[in-house]
Structures are given as structure tokens and as C-alpha cells.
Amino acid sequence: MTVILGIESSCDDTSAAILKDGIVLSNIIASQKVHEAYGGVVPELASRAHQQNIIPVVDQALKKAGISMEEINAIAFTRGPGLLGSLLVGTSFAKGFAIARNLPMIEVNHLQAHILANFIKEPGVESRHPSFPFLTLLVSGGNSQLIVVHDYLKMEMIGQTIDDAAGEAFDKCAKVMGLGYPGGPVIDKLAREGNPERFTFNKPQIPGLDYSFSGLKTSFLYFIRDEIKKNPDFIRDNLNDLCASLQKTIVDILLSKLKKAAKQTGIKQIAIGGGVSANSGLQNAVHTEAAKSGWEVFIPRLGFSLDNAGMVAVTGYYKFLAGQFIRLDAVPFARTTLD
Ligand code: KG4
Questions:
Q1: Ligand 1 touching residue 276 (CB < 6 A)
Q2: Prediction pTM value
Q3: pLDDT tens-place string over residues 132-154
Q4: Please, what sign has the CA dihedral across residues 266, 281, 116, 12?
Q5: Residue 84: enclosing H or E segment and its boundaries?
Q6: By percentage, how much of the chain surpasses pLDDT 70?
Q7: DSSP characters for 42-80?
Q8: Mean pLDDT taken over the chain
Q9: Spatial CB neighbours of 145, under 8 Å, sequence gap ≥ 6
Q10: How many CB atoms lie within 10 A of CB 1?
Q11: Fewest C-beta in 10 Å: which of 46, 105, 116, 327?
Q12: Ligand 1 within 6 A of 300 CB?
């Protein structure tokens, strides 16, 4: 029997999960409402909230799984990338737990964890999983990457954003419209009642498989500023159409490189992960393309596509099986790639 405790604290969600023999028994997530007032994550406040949340979250994860501390064989924690102060809370907790119970520690790369979320199994839930190699579009508040996954622990980044991430584009444009944080889910909801063809925004012309979203954000800001000069109620009068048109632009940008990557690699198993994978416009576009191009599509369910410890525990499980442990003096890292 192998029991792993997974810990995630890379940004503004404190999460703990228990995995037993490859099955995720619990996945507790404490989100931090404190950032809403600021229109984005405030790193110092995030660290403080993690400190308050981490013990209750681990306690709940153990209780929900019906597992005692004595049964845990290893502790897996997100080492990076992310906000350093946030990562330090999870890393320090993992070290304290490992020392107290004399357990091995497993470091987990946050990006790899988002990808391996596609392999999460839950008790009594039938799930489909991709086979290797598969192509992943990883899109969150901090990442927009295209990755070929050769094996659980062997991944190759073939494209990435050269500036902002797709989630950042959603969040920053939402802020321009006064929609609060995180803006992605709000735009998604409002876009359902809007006309996606009403407004057009510039799309980047970046060669290869890389993305860029900073130009879109700026052109959106300037467009709104100009329109408000003519009609101070422009945002309110056109909110649904603005959201639908912006969402369509972001989805078109994401889809065009995903299609290119699928063509170049010849891979038809396509996974999408990260917070933005919850976007209904993106999901519809990927499914429509799948029907045309014969792709098989994999999207983790919502609880496992946003930041969560279930994906950390499952990554920890494969590293445990491969004997990949880390020393107690490991420090977190704010930035890294998959290599
Ligand atoms: O993976 P995640 O929970 O955290 C990290 O960034 O690591 O992703 C959060 C991002 C935010 O930018 C949020 O606005 C975006 O995912 N997001 C969405 C949706 N749900 C979350 N963006 C568009 N549509 C959604 N439904």
C-alpha cells in the first residue's frame, strides 16, 4: 500500500490531497477571497493566508480520506514555479511533516502536475486517460504552453508565451471592464449571452508555436478607452458582446497554435489543463476541432483543472514509483521550465 500526502501552495489556493495506491481519496482546496478587493493576487497576503489554511486543509484531507498520519508513506509538495512566499509555506510544511514522521519528500513541478491531472482516478468514478505520447495545451494565470508528453516523467515544451499568459489576458481585460478577480470565469459567463463577432481585436503574428497576449491586452485597453470617450456607458451597454468577442479572440489564438502543433507532431491525443481549460468557449472550440481532425480530447474535471493538491499527489505517486525523492534542504523556486 502506498499513501501520498500532496501539498499545493504555489499561488492563492491552499490545497491538500491524499492518494492511496494511485487513487485520489480526498482533495481539499481553500481559496483566498482576500485578493478580490485588489483585482489580482497580492503575494504577501497570499503567504499569510496559506499559513492560516495549511493545517486545517491537511487535517480535512486526512479525515475525508479516512487515513491516519501513521499510514502516509511520502509527502509530495509543489516546489515551483509560483509565488516564492506562497511556495515557502507549502515547502516548510512538507519539511516539518517529513522530519516529524521520518518520511521521504517528493518535489513536484507545478506545470507537470497540471499535465498529470489527466491521470487522476477517484473512487467509484470511471475516468478516461490519454496514452503516450499526447499533446497538452497548458493554460492558466501564469502559463500558456504546448507540451509533448512522452511519459509520466518525460515532457518536452514545444511552445510557450513570450509575455503574458492566457489567464492573465482574461484577468487583466476583466479588470479594465471592472469585473473583479479572477476575471476569467466572469467573462466566460457573460460571453454566453454575447455576440462573439461584434468586435474584433488584434491577434499576434508570432512565428512557430509560441504565444503572445500582451498586445491583445493593450489593444483592448485602448479600444475601451476610446469608446468610453464617445459613450461613458460603453462597457455597460456592450458588456456581453465585449466578453464574447474577447473570449473568441483568446480562444482563436490558443487554437491556432494547438492545431499547428498537432499537425507538426502528428499527435491526435490532445489534453488541455490549467485554470483556463475550464473556459466553455475553449472547450467547445477544442471539441469542434476534434470532430474535424479526429482528435481524442482529455480535460480534467473542474476540481482538478484549477490549482489543487490532487494533481500534486498523483505526480508524487509516479515519482515515488520511480524512486525520485529530494533532500530536506531543497528550496522552492519561483520560475522554472519543465526541463
Ligand atoms: O490554474 P489556475 O487555477 O492558477 C494558476 O494560474 O496557476 O488558473 C487560474 C486562471 C485565472 O487567470 C482565471 O481567470 C482562469 O484561470 N480561469 C478561467 C476560467 N476559470 C478560471 N479563464 C477563462 N474561463 C474560465 N472559465
A1: yes
A2: 0.93
A3: 999 999 998 888 999 999 999 99
A4: positive
A5: helix 84-101
A6: 99
A7: -HHHHHHHHHHHHHHHHHHHHHHHT--GGG--EEEEEEE
A8: 95
A9: 111, 136, 137, 138, 139, 157, 159, 160, 161
A10: 6
A11: 327
A12: no
Asked if 116 and 149 touch (Cβ cutoff 8 Å), the reply is no
CA–CA gap between residue 311 and residue 336 (Å, rounded): 18
Does 182 sit in the ligand 1 pocket, CB within 6 Å?
Answer: yes
Does any ligand 1 atom lie closer than 6 A to the CB of residue 279? Answer: yes
Q: Is-contact 91 21, C-beta < 8 A? A: no
- The predicted model gives 149-161 an average pLDDT of 96
Give the residue, by CA position, lying nearest to ligand 1 atom 1. Answer: 275
pLDDT at res. 34: 86
Please write the tens of the pLDDT for every residue from 34-51: 888 887 889 999 999 999
Residue 171 cell numbers, joined:
484577468
- Give the CA distances from residue 14 to residues 52, 66, 82, 180, 299, in Å, rounded to whole numbers and listed in that order: 9, 20, 13, 21, 22
Over pLDDT 90: what percentage of the chain? 91
- Residues written for the chain: 339
Q: CA-CA distance, 39 to 174, in Å (whole number)? A: 9
Among residues 137, 131, 167, 189, the alpha carbon closest in space to that of 276 is found at 167
Q: Which atom of ligand 1 is nearest to the CA of 142?
A: 6
Lowest mean pLDDT of 39-53, 62-76, 236-250, name the range: 39-53
From residue 201, give the alpha-carbon distance in Å to each of 217, 219, 244, 248.
Answer: 9, 7, 12, 10
Q: Is the dihedral of CA 196, 199, 204, 208 positive or negative?
A: positive
